[in-house]
Design a protein that fits this description.
By secondary structure, the protein is α/β, with parallel strands linked by helices. The chain has 2 domains: about 1-185, no CATH class; about 190-355, 3-Layer(aba) Sandwich (Rossmann fold). The protein has helices spanning about 1-15, 20-25, 50-55, 55-70, 80, 85-105, 125-130, 150-165, 175-185, 190-195, 215-220, 245-265, 300-310; strands spanning about 30, 40, 45, 235-240, 265-270, 275-280, 315-320, 335-340, 350-355. The strands form 2 sheets. It has a 6-stranded mixed beta sheet, with helices on both faces. Strands 1-3-2 form a 3-stranded mixed beta sheet. The structure holds zinc ion.
Length: about 350
Amino acid sequence: MQSDIVRLARARLLIDQPWLSELIMRLTLVESPECQTTATDGKSLFYAPEFFGKCNKSEQMMLIAHEAMHAVLGHCDPHRVGGRQPSRWNIACDYAINLMLDEAGMTLADGALVSKKYTGMTAEAIYAALPKKSGGGCGGLRPGTSSPAERAAVMTALAAAAQALKRAGRGGSAWQAYLDEAAAPPLDWRDILRAELSGVRRGSDDFSWRRPSRRGMALGCYLPSQIAYVPGPIAIAIDTSGSMAMAEIAEAVAIVRDVSEREQPDILVMLADQAISAEVRLAMGEHWEPGKVSGGGGTDFRPAQRRASELGIETLVYVSDMAGPMLPHEERGATKTIWITRTRDIPKNETVIKIGE
Ligand SMILES: [Zn+2]
């Protein structure tokens, strides 16, 4: 019943401020009586039901918009907060957000932290300009991390929101700082992929047991000869379906080479359209020169996804235009799929790294 109030407020906000929709829908609503008011960790919006129920409709909309802005602006990211004092950081972020919401034409609650002198400044700049002892601020920011791919997706959504506001003749210099940030060259996809792969378990075994150490044998125990940094189980699938141009396939081949050279993992390369047509295993840093790439069939991601899952591969990187059936998340087992694509047409709930533009 209580959560209905939040959902209703969110629906009202979507109608009232449609430019916010992409940003709001990223947040999961989580009932959290202990937060007393509202809070966010960048992914969820926590609300105390009793507090929320007592706010009037316009205050409720503002609370959701406010927390959504904290989330999309990366205010919860520990890397961004750095060594800053949390409550002062929270206040700086509130000043940044409230100016943006004010420029977007929303009605701020009484007592909201807003000052024109901070117009056009990022939260970091406002923090530096704030008096050492500052009071106020909203319910709170909980530390939360986003992957580089998630951050990139959020920045795209934020830029789209800013553009929508601009078209509507709203959003001014407080937005400009973030528009500039969003317009800055995006992170190179290689860096994003590297960050995504850095969490991948490096090998099924940290030790190589094949060549026992002589010293260990002499001591009567079977010690591994070395602590080999055995690279992890990564698969890269290249979509060779008819919808992929030769240039795109060549690009995918270059991606395999790049990952192999930079990350030095063992890689299982699969060429696939509606079926897997080839499998190649590359050892650490091994150079891959594909022969003639056959394919040209219909697109289906499921065979390669199934194969990766059966092999217990942790991360499947799929280079594709993404137009085809995918395995439902519950059938992917422990395998995470990361898509590398040029398409703008990106399904929800997928980890996507965009290349080109
Ligand atoms: Zn706040």
